[in-house]
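Training component of the fellowship. As part of building independent skills, the fellow (R.M.) carried out the full modelling exercise for a liganded target. The chosen ligand was S-adenosylmethionine. The inputs are recorded below so that the supervisory panel can assess the work.
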Amino acid sequence: MADADHALYYSDDLMTNLQLRYGEGMLSPGGAEELGRLVGSIDLSGKTGLDLGCGLGGYDTLLVADYGVGRMVGVDINGAAVQLAARRAADMGMADRVSFHAVEPGPLPFEDNSFDFAFSKDSIVDIPDKAPVLAELHRVIRPGGALLISDWFRADAPYTPEMREWATTGDETYEMASLGSTAAELAAAGFAEIETEDRGEWFVAFCRDEVARLSGPLWPTYVDRFGEESARRSVKNAERRLLLAEQGQLLTGHVRARKPM
Ligand SMILES: C[S@@+](CC[C@H](N)C(=O)[O-])C[C@H]1O[C@@H](n2cnc3c(N)ncnc32)[C@H](O)[C@@H]1O
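Fellow's submitted model of the complex:
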């Protein structure tokens, strides 16, 4: 998807739509549980972290509240999301521990070695050319610092026609990485201790539940808020995603790595 289209793609309506199914402040599935699996036994207390593609900042406030992170800095190309994230964090009394900045796609506006760790949730999937992003994350993490990514991935095989059709929004297509190609790109960027975790099985169960919720308890809210046609589209899209997940073509996964000392 072209970067310039993104601020438009994550419209207010889409952000409301996603929060209704994923939880307040969340534009991606998984919430506290998947975050816990991603962090694992890594001690983040008192550390300063960068969140690439922070959206509404739901994961940043969780990292501070549940993991004792000292300070989170969220960046996103969507200025409206960043403003909402800042307001939400202030309402939660966390304005001194989290900050949010609108950025342009490309080089990050931070010095080398600025962060103890970097985090990204379901955002690198949106960026077609991933190697420069991983190189930037490597540059801004301090030596010995951790990289924690949770994202959507493709299977190792090329896109099938139905996967390509699903991945195409408007005139653009999500160019997804596989867990294997991500590990290789991280190694090429200079990361070590690279670990990947396939969460495809969890994702299938999540997608199944999402279809049931969208066509059941959430249906009246979606119709009321977005209209029947749009509510139907949400269900249809979730059903197509479930099928691709069941076929193993689309999965979520966690990736951990470290910048060597
Ligand atoms: C699916 S949302 C996830 C937001 C948040 N991480 C969450 O999980 O709730 C993807 C986010 O990535 C942002 N994004 C896309 N391309 C980006 C880029 N090149 N740099 C920073 N953010 C980007 C989008 O604007 C969007 O807010």
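The panel noted the following from the submitted structure. Confidence is low (pLDDT under 50) at residues 1-7. Residues 3-153+171-200+253-257 form a domain with the Rossmann fold fold (CATH 3.40.50.150).
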